[in-house]
Design goal:
The structure is a homodimer.
Chain A lengths: L1 E7 L2 E6 L11 E9 L5 H6 L7 E2 L4 E8 L11 E4 L2 E2 L5 H4 L10 E2 L12 E4 L2 H4 L1 E2 L9 H6 L3 H12 L7 E4 L3 H12 L5 E4 L3 H10 L3 E3 L3 H11 L5 E6 L4 H10 E9 L7 E3 L2 H4 L4 E4 L4 H14 L10 E4 L3 H9 L6 E4 L1
């Protein structure tokens, strides 16, 4: 089959690889119907050391089950399924506590012998714990929105949930990528009435406003902080959803958080050390967040997607074939595209 | 009157200063009955640059109201009162949200023209919002326990509350100072059944066990982390109460926190940057804590002190006169004393 591999920074290719096969009785083989490129895929696109073996790419996909192992009970051949960006048994204590990305028997796509989602098919470990059946046809117009349940919508939701967003909390969202925009949508869905979006790409922040942002701050750094403080009587907001992952975004978050507030990070931190001294401590701020336990949230979010109450699939502004995936990376890196959907 | 001043690292003196006087109609003058030296007073004791004017010391005290300004309504001359380590109006929005240490009209003792508690008397700004009447006589045996409501008991309680300690959460407390021991007592009081105390001073950890610690780990660093993991099937605890304030304590906290857990800091951080990369983010850990909003907690904690349900005053293992305060610093710094009570 054909699959997308990265061989080093800027070097993405679609190559021939062996078809995936069932290995464990808990496995399923899924034929990919729609996948996409993630903002986090751009991190290795910038920094990966050259590797002649390459690594498979992609961790978001919707597909049709082709074959299941003997112990798989909840999905069967022909089902259209959504796959979270991590696989898990959804049964261990960490999963039951709502931290599926730390499943004792789980892992991530494109690692440890498991393929990636930017491919024609993939072996899914722990299929019962991982896959969620979506009651639509493969041709459904809902497919892009269902695909966002793999990662970006659930991740934006996680940012808002961990921050404790509700109707009484003011919100700042940092970042106008797909996750940031869906953090706006998630905050709105959880009842927030005041949502300040920090982002400087007009087409994106316009979509953010349609998703529920009430204010847009295009400035960054100290200037951006000053602007948010100006919008909030000098106080900042109760919650800050940090959807970028770089140090300047964290520093902005610190600057715009209100006394007693929460900074919730879902942008994978591309740094180790950060300021957690008096700036965080002195005002009783809380720093939370992490990889979204997508599986934990799909049951709650899926009905709103199916009913059309929300339309998170609007973050996709381009569609390519599998063979064009390398160009999808290029276009997202050049910010020509917000998020690219891949149709194998 | 006589008051304790610090003139530089290791240089504490009791000197003559003018008697405090009412300055605002919201002020009260309080004659100190009992004060104490705080672990956090040892930070400047180690590092303060020489200053010939010195700075007043002390932020924990119980006293008797001598005189009140025209607008003071809730306390009157003769009342025995407890003073939180910060003063506040207890009426602004930050106070009402439970963050009294960030009061819009508040501040800290021994700063901005306000004296310290290690003195014969002090001017109390915002007396109505700051002072809490204790219905006992000045000779009461409860005085040491009431004094812990100024800071250390309320601070330990804050660590436990912000961490979300309850009957279902396992707890690690880092630090066997007065705050650490009272964090143990607080966790126990909130229902925790498993409380691991990390500390290496036997007399202190013995008291910790009487307060509710179920396990003591004397090792520090990687060895200490390994020991806690060994006690928790390799997982760590749901909550970690960091009661020290130095980087190694934070690193221990990171090492012993369970997936999805909370690190709650109440030791004032003596550092700025710390590890908030994948070690914190990858396991969905939350970092919280800050200066305890003591005034917010006194109403809840005072009845348990008055009834004898808890006896936090046991952290005092030495009593000195005001003139002996310099020796109290020395003894606490040398770890001869856990916490020294000062009787002006």
């Amino acid at each position: 089959m054909r699959a997308t591999y990265m061989f080093g920074a800027g070097d993405v290719r679609v190559i021939d690889v062996p078809d995936p096969k069932l290995e464990q009785p808990t496995d399923a083989i899924v034929r990919i119907v729609a996948a996409c490129v993630c903002g986090s895929d751009l991190h290795p696109y910038h920094s990966m050391a050259a590797d002649e073996n390459g690594k498979p790419m992609g961790h978001e996909f919707v597909g049709v089950v082709e074959e299941t192992g003997a112990e798989v009970r909840t999905v069967k051949a022909g089902d259209l399924v959504i796959a979270p960006f991590a696989w898990q048994d959804n049964a261990c204590d960490f999963c039951r506590e709502g931290f599926q990305t730390s499943c004792r028997h789980g892992g991530f796509w494109a690692a440890g012998g498991i393929g990636g989602g930017q491919a024609e098919a993939v072996r899914v470990p722990q299929a019962d714990g991982t896959l969620v059946k979506a009651p639509v046809e493969t041709g459904s117009a809902l497919l892009p929105s269902l695909l966002t349940l793999s990662d970006v919508f659930a991740t934006g939701h996680h940012a808002a949930v961990r921050a404790g967003v509700n109707a009484r909390t003011t919100v700042t969202v940092i970042g106008d990528g797909a996750v940031g925009l869906l953090a706006v949508l998630s905050a709105k869905r959880l009842g927030a009435e005041r949502i300040i979006l920090m982002g400087r790409h007009r087409a994106r922040t316009d979509l953010g406003c349609e998703f529920g942002a009430t204010d847009v701050v295009a400035e960054r750094g100290q200037e951006g902080i000053a602007k948010v403080l100006e919008l909030t009587s000098g106080d900042g907001t109760h919650t800050v959803l940090e959807c970028v992952g770089h140090t300047p975004a964290y520093e902005q978050a610190l600057g715009v958080a209100r006394v007693g507030g929460v900074i919730s990070r879902v942008g994978v931190p591309q740094y180790t050390d950060g300021d957690i001294g008096w700036n965080l401590f002195g005002r009783n701020l809380t720093l939370t967040g992490g990889p979204a336990p997508v599986r934990h949230y799909i049951d709650e979010l899926l009905p709103d997607v199916l009913s059309g109450a929300v339309d998170p699939g609007r973050v996709f502004d381009r569609t390519v074939s599998l063979e064009q995936t390398p160009d999808a990376y290029r276009a997202m890196d050049a910010r020509e595209a917000l998020k690219v959907l891949v149709r194998p």
